[in-house]
Design goal:
Layout lengths: L5 H19 L9 H14 L4 H4 E4 L2 H10 L4 E3 L2 H6 L5 E2 L5 H10 L3 H8 L1 H4 L3 E4 L3 H13 L6 E4 L7 H9 L5 E4 L6 H15 L5
Parallel strand pairs: 2-3, 2-4, 4-5, 5-6
Antiparallel strand pairs: 1-6
C-alpha cells in the first residue's frame, strides 16, 4: 500500500483489517476470488467508502488478464496526468496535453479526452487503458473496440460524475472484453489508481 516505516505498516495493516470486516457486511465474499477481494479492499481503503464493495464489477477475468499483461510489459494509457502520476509502472502514457490531440479535438469538435484515446489507439490495442475522470474518453474506447476492432487487454473504466459517467460504464460492460468498472456515478482518480496499482502489485507478487 506504499507504507515503509513500522508505524506506517502497522497503520496500513490495521486499516485493512477494519476494511475486511466492513466488507463482509456489504457483500458475500465467497462469491469473489481472492484477487477480486484484494482489489475491492484496496479501493475501499483508498476511498474510505465501503459502498465500493458492491459497486465494483469484474468482467471476463480482468485481474488475470491485467496481471499477465503487466508481466508482458504492455503500455498503460490513462485519461488524465494525475492518474498517470499515481500508477507505479514505467510504461504509462497520457496524451491529454499533446499538441496533436489539441488539434484533433478542435478539428473534430470532440473533447480532448476523447481525442486522446483516438490518438493513442495503437497503444490501447493490446495494452491497458485506465479511465477515472472522463466519460467521453471511455465512450471513445468503447467505440474503438466496436468499430475499429481495437483489442485492449484490460479496460479499467471508473469515470466519476453525474453526466454520462454511469452511461459510459454501462456501455463498457456491454463489451466482451476484460474490464473493471463501477456501477453508478462513483469513481475517480483514487479508484482508478487503486485498482491499477493493485493489479501491478499482484503481477509483482507484492502485498496488495
Amino acid at each position: 500500500m506504499g507504507a515503509i516505516s513500522k508505524e506506517g505498516l502497522d497503520i496500513a495493516k490495521k486499516s485493512r483489517e477494519i476494511v475486511r470486516e466492513k466488507i463482509k457486511n456489504i457483500i458475500d465474499i465467497e462469491k469473489y476470488s481472492k484477487e477480486e477481494i484484494s482489489i475491492i479492499e484496496r479501493v475501499v481503503h483508498s476511498t474510505a467508502d465501503v459502498e465500493y464493495a458492491k459497486l465494483l464489477v469484474f468482467k471476463n477475468n480482468p485481474i488475470k488478464n491485467g496481471v499477465e499483461s503487466i508481466k508482458s510489459r504492455v503500455p498503460i494509457v490513462t485519461d488524465i496526468n494525475m492518474i498517470k502520476a499515481g500508477i507505479r509502472y514505467d510504461k504509462v502514457f497520457c496524451f491529454i496535453n499533446n499538441e496533436d490531440v489539441y488539434k484533433l479535438a478542435k478539428e473534430e469538435e470532440i473533447t480532448r479526452a476523447s481525442a486522446a484515446m483516438k490518438y493513442a489507439k495503437d497503444l490501447i490495442d493490446g495494452g491497458i487503458v485506465v479511465i477515472g475522470n472522463a466519460p467521453t474518453a471511455l465512450f471513445e474506447v468503447v467505440r474503438l473496440v466496436k468499430e475499429e476492432n481495437i483489442k485492449p487487454k484490460l479496460i479499467v473504466g471508473v469515470p466519476v460524475g453525474f453526466v454520462q459517467a454511469s452511461e459510459s460504464k454501462e456501455a463498457l460492460r456491454e463489451l466482451d472484453v476484460p474490464s473493471i468498472s463501477t456501477i453508478g456515478p462513483k469513481g475517480g482518480t483514487s479508484v482508478a489508481v487503486a485498482i491499477t496499482n493493485g493489479i501491478i502489485a499482484l503481477a509483482k507478487k507484492e502485498e496488495v
